Amino acid sequence: MNNQHPLPLLPVQPEFDTWRGHRIATYRAGHGQPMLLVHSINAAASAFEMRGPFNQLQSDYTMHAFDLLGYGNSDRPARVYQAEDYIDQTVAQLERIGAPTVLIASSLGAAYAIAAAARVPDLVSALVLACPVGISQLATPPSAFNWSLYRLLDGPLGRWVFRQLTSKRSMRFFLARQAYNDPASFTPETLTGFYTPAQIPGSHYAPVCFVSGLLTCDIAAVYPRLRMPIQIIWGRQATTTPVSKANEFVQMNPRARLEVIDRASMLVQDERPAEFARLVRAFLANVG
């Protein structure tokens, strides 16, 4: 990635940190208590999907976001990507901020955020989890089958599969059917924001690991032990991660509060950004 011409994923220019010799794109805006945004994992993930809270909350908070390695404006090295990498990158961002931070994360990124919060609890003042997984979904540790599948996909076949998943036709279908509920919220700008990062050379390395099952993250043991306030926000129309799964997160930690947003699917923070931000503000006002 040429950092002189970064992708316009968020309305600020990225800066670059180093994680184990690789460049990690970071974004910052606003003033006040720090918040850190962690995006989900998919074939075309990046901090772009966190633009809603980044824009909506920066009037009251210092917003921090970053692209996980292999995505967005961060480096895309040829390597085996695993959950531990992304947990460690999240911890590194919290340590870079260096103060108690509100951690906002989506889907599988929420599982990494939970694991990171368990490791450095003094650096996480509250958790906001959008359609999280890691208990009964995407929680099974990689098996011999997953490693065999990875070896099969780590080459021309995997690149071919990735190209099919990230064609404009495929991405339009996935985003409109699973990530967003309201057709009005899925704009040409949205499609471009997902499609463009996936066309950069090396973009297939991390998604191949995801498709192979190497990026799962089991948080069932650490999540109940968290002591910071937790807000769960779910899109009522989410299908990949249905709202029925919210009960797992509410029942396993008494500090968790659930809010459900109507007419929203899996990327609830981007589909209903104003309502999402309103719920976050109210939650933090009540626990503060």
From TrEMBL:
Top-rank taxon: Bacteria
InterPro entries: AB_hydrolase_1 (IPR000073), AB_hydrolase_fold (IPR029058)
The entry's keywords: Hydrolase
UniProt keyword Flavoprotein present: no
Domain spans labelled AB hydrolase-1: 36-278
One of the record's GO molecular function terms: hydrolase activity
Keyword Signal appears in the UniProt entry: no
One matching Pfam family: Abhydrolase_6
Record's protein name: Alpha/beta hydrolase fold-containing protein
Source species of the chain: Oscillochloris trichoides DG-6
